[in-house]
Amino acid sequence: MMVKEVAELAGISVRTLHHYDEIGLLHPSGTTEAGYRVYSDEDLALLQQILFFRELGFPLKQIRDIVSRPDFDRREAMELHHKLLLEKRARLERMIDTLEKTMKHEKGEIRMTNQDKFAGFDFSSNPYEQEARERWGDKAVDESNERLNKMSKEEQTQMGEEMNAIYRKLAELRHESPATDEAQQAIGEWYQLLNRMGYYSPEAFKGLGQMYVDDERFTRNIDKFGEGLAVFMRDAMAEYADRRSQ
C-alpha cells in the first residue's frame, strides 16, 4: 500500500508516517521506481502495534526500543495491550459514572457532596514544570507562573480559548508546508501568546517545539486537535525561530 492509503486506513496523517520513518520506528518495506514508500502487510501489523502503544501513552522512543528488540513477541504484546486497555476502560467507566451522577445531581435527582464531584481529579501540580525548569531554568518558569497567578479566572479562561483557537487554525494547515506564509503567521501568533506568559527566546521556542514531539504527553494532547499537529508545530516553530535568528 502507498503511504496515503496507509494514512487513510489507520486514521493518521502522511506526515506522521514520514516521522515514524525518520526516527526509525516504522520503515516501509520498499519503494517504487519513482521513490514513493510502499508498505507491506507486515508493516501494517507493526503499525497497529505502534498505535496500540501510543493509545496507552507510551513515548515514541520507548515504542521503538520495544518493537525493535530481537525477542519482541507480537502476541505477547497484544496480551499486554488487552490488559492495559481494559484497565484504561475501567478508569474511564469510573469517570463516566462520576459524570452521570453529577448530571443527576444537577437535575435534583440525587445529592452529591463536593468531595464526590471532584474525586479522582488532581490539578495541584503541573507535570511539565520540572522538565521546563531543567530545560530553560527557574527564572523563565517562575516568571511565567507569576504572570499566570496574577491573571483573573476570566483572563485565564480567555487565554485558554485563544490557545485553542490557534491550535485549531494550525490543525487546518498541518497538511501544508510549515514554511508557508500562512503557517508562519499562525505559529507567530503562538509565539506571541507564549511570550505573554513568559519570555521565550527563538531558541527556547524551537526547543519547546521539539518537546512537543519527544514527549508523548505533549504529542497526545496536541494531536487531539488533529493527528500530526505536534510534528507540524515542531517544524513550523523551528522555521520561525531560524528566521528570527538570521
* CATH topology (level 3) name of the largest domain: Globin-like
- CATH class membership of the largest domain: Mainly Alpha
Percent helix range = over 70%
So how many helices? Answer: 13
Shape: flat
- Rounded to the nearest angstrom, the distance between the terminal CA atoms is 42 Å
Describe the structure.
The chain is mainly α. The chain folds into three domains: 3-67, Multidrug-efflux Transporter Regulator, Chain: A, Domain 2, CATH 1.10.1660; 74-117, no CATH class; 129-245, Orthogonal Bundle (Globin-like), CATH 1.10.490. The protein has 13 helices and two strands. Strands 1-2 form a two-stranded antiparallel sheet. Strand 1 and strand 2 form a beta hairpin. Helix 3 (41-55) crosses helix 4 (60-67). It is flat. Residues 122-137 have low confidence and may be disordered.
Q: What key phrases describe this protein's structure?
A:
Globin-like, mainly alpha, 3 domains, 13 helices, flat, 246 residues, two-stranded antiparallel ribbon, Multidrug-efflux Transporter Regulator, Chain: A, Domain 2, single chain
Lay out the secondary structure.
Elements (H helix, E strand, L loop, with lengths): L2 H8 L3 H9 L7 E2 L5 E2 L2 H15 L4 H8 L6 H33 L7 H4 L11 H8 L1 H13 L2 H21 L7 H17 L4 H13 L1 H7 L6 H17 L1
Antiparallel strand pairs: 1-2
In short:
With 246 residues, the protein is mostly helical. The chain has helices spanning 3-10, 14-22, 41-55, 60-67, 74-106, 114-117, 129-136, 138-150, 153-173, 181-197, 202-214, 216-222, 229-245, and strands at 30-31, 37-38. It has three domains: 3-67, Orthogonal Bundle (Multidrug-efflux Transporter Regulator, Chain: A, Domain 2), CATH 1.10.1660.10; 74-117, no CATH class; 129-245, Globin-like (Orthogonal Bundle), CATH 1.10.490.50.
